[in-house]
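User: What would this chain look like folded?
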Amino acid sequence: MKSNESKSETSIIPIESVTQRIFLIRGQKVMLDVDLAELFEITTKALNQAIKRNTSRFPEDFMFKLTMTETEILNRSQFVTGSQKHRDPRFPPYAFTEHGVAMLASVLKSSRAIQMNILVVRAFIRIREILASNKELAGKIEDLEREQRLQNRHINAIYSMVNKLIEKPVEKPAEKTEEIRKPIGFSRN
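Assistant: Here's the prediction, encoded as structure tokens.
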């Protein structure tokens, strides 16, 4: 019965709302500490304290702190989108990769953290699938464009040949009529 309860609790949050919280920073798909704290239903301060107690579990490929510049850019982009998560740039957020989010569940150990971790990992997987399908689709479109260019060249060559056939034949200039014509037949001379 517990599995039914956990499914109903995680279904309250649609996976799309989680995927909207995944950002591309430094070439990696990440989630910010404030978003994860909201999902895990704890304060950002409590989340960051748990991380500080377990720093050895979070190498740089699992989690990193944003620079001041990145934080300012993030604040500007959130200001434009109307997000209420404007942060004080003196306290840059932590960014967690998919592996870092998985590690958070083991650090926090609450049932909510485990449920949200599963949901977040599924969101990362969905984004990966979407990106893979887009690459495949882009490859197919490129192949079609290449074939179309080749067909256009062939069609243009056919039109060129047809136009040459349709053109009126060029009339040869009349030969000089002033030439002396020799009479046909026998002459007495």
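The radius of gyration is 37 Å. If you want, I can go into more detail on any region.
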